[in-house]
Amino acid sequence: MAEHARLRVLVAHPSADLYGSDLQLVESVAALTAAGCSVTVTLPGEGPLTARLAAAGATVVVLPVPVLRKSLLRPRGALTLVRSVLTSSPPAWRLLRGTAADVVYVNTVTLPAWLPLCRLARVPVLVHVHEAETDLPRWQRWVLNAPLLLAHRVVVNSHAAAEALLGAVPRLARRTRVVHNGVAGPPEAPSAPARSDGPARLVLVGRLAPRKGSDVAVEATALLRARGVDVELQLCGTVFPGYEWFEEQLRDRAARPDLAGHVHLAGYTSPTWPALAAADVVLVPSRAEPFGNVAVEGQLALRPVVASAVQGLREIVTDGVTGRSVPADDPAALADAVHQLLTDPGSADHLARAGNRSALERFGLQRYRDAIVAQVVGTAGPGRGQDPTV
To answer: Which of 162, 158, 157, 159 is nearest to 145 (CA)?
Structure first.
């Protein structure tokens, strides 16, 4: 398909890993190249994402640029950010001009340096927001999101993310669109969990981070074992640089007598389908989650999902209908929901099948790909396609 063969898209992304927003980028790139676009992606370094993007048809360019972290939202951090932006701007400008991009697609709110460059070069820019920061002071949320006023269009991955964004910068309302993530299913048709006499396996896939609730899952596992429920927990993921202390805390807690040998830190795991297929229950105990690809993946794997009732997860899991939804940061509530599923296999199977049907219907890849192409082409302007949402 060469519907938009003349459209040149430059994509900026802050990571070369393969977690939720990284995998979503692969789907966006695949959609654009399938529509005939020429796509160049810039990453801050080499990583497992590089090969996936190349396989999707993109040209990958390594270009270190500053990524906006919470530490940079403080006065001292702001000076570091300004220096980094000034240093990285010339090579970014050369890439922008060298690709002759018709539109720039910035796949995060944490790469603000691209927006003034695009405005200066008079290149339309779309920002795809995968964040929904609500735990920052109001002024920091404004600083984080205000650069989006330079974007021509903003795409958010959930209504919760839109609410968080517009709560910080209301003026973005007219240029903001909601496009739920599209999530690929397992390579083979999933089957229900096999019953065994061994411990029930709980699986959490995602960064080891406080916001992902890894520690909540560990404490819930301890509570279940204290009740005499034979369970083990597998944590699949690694930490962001600077959060090594959190992994150490998890390991120290897992080594205590009540949990020793029953919590496994599997490290970076890709593909994740074998881990999900081995699960009896998939946990998504995030304290904050703009969308929650892992919740959808758990549903697509035909597993009962227990997720926190926060932000985008509430748009995926409806309690008692497509899974179990529990209060965030509440190990006892998480343990109660898991216990109920393990003691009532019929209910667990019913929720898993209902969740699977919902995921296939609402978060399919083709729906997502069509929507992303429409948004990018619409951002590029007249003569490059029409945006059906306008």
So the answer is: 162
Cβ of 75: how many Cβ atoms within 10 Å? 6
* C-alpha to C-alpha distance for 286 and 282, rounded to whole angstroms: 12
Largest Cα–Cα separation, the chain: 66
What's the 3-state SS for 108-153?
Answer: CCCCCCHHHHHHHHCCCEEEEECCCCCCCCHHHHHHHHHHHHHCCE
Whether residue 72 has pLDDT greater than 70? no
CB count in 10 Å sphere of residue 79: 11
CA distances, 309 to each of 54, 224, 315, 317, 326 (Å): 36, 21, 9, 8, 5
User: Which domains, ranges and CATH numbers included, belong to the chain?
Assistant: 8-182+364-380 (3.40.50.2000), 200-362 (3.40.50.2000)
85, HSE (Cβ side, Cα atoms, 13 Å) = 16
202: tokens are: 């709980």
Contacts with 331 (C-beta within 8 Å, 6 or more apart), sequence order: 216, 219, 220, 222, 223
Model confidence over 212-270: pLDDT tens digits?
A: 999 999 999 999 999 999 999 999 999 988 899 999 999 999 999 999 999 999 999 98
Query: Edge-to-edge strand order for the sheet containing 125-129?
Result: 59-62, 38-43, 8-12, 103-106, 125-129, 153-156, 176-178
The whole-model pTM stands at 0.83
CA atoms within 13 A on the CB side of 262: 25
Mean pLDDT across the stretch 47-67?
A: 92
> What is the Cα–Cα distance from 227 to 110, expressed in whole angstroms?
43
Nearest to 376 by CA among 95, 33, 20: 33
Cis amide linkage into residue 271, ω under 30° from 0: yes
Give the sheet arrangement for strand 231-236, strand by strand. 263-267, 231-236, 200-205, 281-284, 305-308, 324-326
Contact 386, 378 (CB under 8 A): yes
